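fold description:
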Amino acid sequence: MDYKNLAKEILGDLGGTENINSFTNCMTRLRINVKNPELVNSGKLKELKGVLGVVPGEQTQIIVGVGHAQRLREAFGDVAGMSGSSEISENLDNLEEKTKEKVKSKQKSSFQKGLKHIGNIFIPLIPGFVGTGLVLAITRIWSVFDGGISANPWFALLVAVGGLLLSSLNILVGYNAGKEFGGTPVLGAIAGAMIAMPALAGQPDKPLTLFNGFIKLSPNLGGVLGVIFAAFVFAFIEKKLRKVVPASLDLLIIPVLTILAGGIVTIAIVMPVAAVIMKGVTFVLLDIMLNKGGIIGGYVLAASFLPLVMLGIHQGLTPVHIQLIQDYGYTVLFPILGMAGAGQVGSAIAILVKTKNKRLRELISSALPAGFLGIGEPLIYGVSLPLFYPFITACLGAGFGGAVLAAAKNVGSTTIGPSGLVLLAVADSNRSMVWCFVALVASYLGGFILTYLFGYNEKMLERLED
């Protein structure tokens, strides 16, 4: 891809340098904050070679795919004579298509703000989850071909590297949460470390309890949700102290009072409350939706996941995935929800078979390889969502994969992030790998058949011109 020429064309269609406030990039998009959205020619931007989709608005988002976004941002900066920044963690306010943005602007509830905070805390950690998860996948595949490799110290070292993120997860989450809530990040990290203190277990004959033995403390009680709450408490206390403590005593007094006061609140209130909330959420999702709901529950979870993504609600599930991985070594929810992208792939293939539109065929052909590897943004935001009906049939098709996994039971992944065919590498067992493959095929076929029969006709191309 000729990034410099593409950047020149994009700049022209955005209304020139004088219409640019700032720009950045995430993993798949160049994001430009424009002064006047009416000067942006979205139609021409969509036609540019290398552009997979465009999300109009005050922040115009140009989808170019993984590996291209940062290079295009650098070229755009050179052409525009401005400097941008790399924003690997996607801001949840900017993840949605134009329709979603209109809804989002009307929804400013505390619940949604909370979901935004959760996303900003966990999204920066996803590269770590993917990297360490794939390292563990390598060790598992290696051990299959060499049963005696576990005695090799270098193999043990590789296994340890794969487990680094989970072993330090509370600290990383606490650091990000402290920063997100406006406190000192390292104090947030201390809050996270406090949740996992081995000393919370007490002594074998004298366990630590609260309220006359009503609550028994233990390391990691409340899990990552407790870490988020604790970091919020620490940040709240710290900010209140800064209003009353003289600047000359800031460094001496504020950190110690924050840790002591925040620690008491965390151990006495935050950890027990977070534990109850996590148990309630996992009960609904696992016991009711999957164990009792069975195939229907699995279908509903997979089919509804992308609409949840459009609303930003999916971020609320991240602590659940992580808690399951911490407790059991795998999450059974993530593979089911990961089928959502496979339905989009099947839907896109159906459109590719039916359409005669050259531009649409090129768009789908360029986005499909990424789709098979679990990167669905180009297909979702460039094809199915603008056409609308294929998005619906893709979601319904994805449900079949979720139903397959629910029927198979106990199919898990050892990390979050990788989906599509990459999901096979992070399956928790050979059995799970086989069932994930079967479920992916079911979602591909479901999305294809429903879209081919009911989801697409050439008249829908008019939507892409809007």
